[in-house]
């Protein structure tokens, strides 16, 4: 994390207790077969159904994500899943229930996008500020901890070149991530999804991008309810955030990071993620 981000931490506000993990995705890219990627039988079986949360990379990937949240002192986690994800519920309630964190579930009935997924967790949030993260990313502890103690809504943005150096994410994939405009006061000013070549050239190599890690107040729910359907046919969280910032005056403090994020999007990511997590013993 940028050392200057420490100046944004407010010690007069109670740290976050709650986190929401978006795990409802269909795993389309993970389900695509790739003969060039060797998988063991257990990895292949999970990849074939696209349930990335349970993909074994030593232990099921979500064990590491939950363990990082517990290490960062979050107390309660809501996992947004689909009605067909009974195997995820069984694993975390019967096979290997978390010991350091209280786990709840919210069911998103249809895969209508990430803004709709966040709305599924509104009863769990119950009026508190909360963290939102992806289920297929492993974020640095510094980012999770900084948002927990920030004291106001915000986001951690990642420097694009640093992501290329410190992550397993290919440069062409990072180029498709949302570019972010930051105000002089270090608040999010705008967010550009799927930037074109001209926008990428204008932003330069040092641009900061969103990896979908947010600290929200309950005000985000109204933006999620109002967001129009995207060209991809979904209600998308980045578009809800953009509208909330530009149209509703939502203020999101920006914390800058030059660290990496592990991404488990497709089968080609599995070996690198497994190697990166090899020295970590998850204790969710």
Helix content: 25-40%
Mind summarizing the main beta sheet?
A: 7 strands, mixed
Helix and strand pattern: EHHHEHEHHEEHEHHEEHEHHEEH
Number of helix segments?
13
* Topology, number of strands: 11
Poorly predicted parts: 3-11
> What's the number of domains?
1
CATH architecture: Alpha-Beta Complex
Cross-sheet strand order for the largest sheet: 3-2-1-4-9-6-10
What distance lies between the first and last C-alpha atoms, to the nearest angstrom? 24 Å
Fraction of residues in β-strands:
15-25%
Rg (C-alpha, Å): 18 Å
Instruction: Give me the secondary-structure category.
Output: alpha/beta
- Spatial shape: globular
Q: Could you write a compact summary of the structure shown?
A:
With 284 residues, the protein is of the alpha/beta class.
What does the model show?
- This protein is an alpha/beta fold.
- The chain has one domain: Spore Coat Polysaccharide Biosynthesis Protein SpsA, Chain A (Alpha-Beta Complex).
- Helix content is 34%, strand content 19%.
- The chain has 13 helices and eleven strands.
- The chain has helices at residues 28-31, 41-49, 61-71, 86-95, 114-120, 122-125, 141-148, 160-166, 171-174, 197-203, 220-226, 237-247, 270-277, and strands at residues 18-22, 76-81, 102-107, 130-134, 137-138, 154-159, 179-182, 188-192, 208-216, 253-257, 262-263.
- It has a seven-stranded mixed sheet with strand order 3-2-1-4-9-6-10, with helices on both faces. Strands 5-11 form a two-stranded antiparallel sheet.
- Helix 5 (114-120) crosses helix 12 and helix 11 (220-226) crosses helix 12 (237-247).
- The protein is globular.
- The chain starts with 17 loop residues before the first strand and ends in a 7-residue tail after the last helix.
- 45% of the residues are buried.
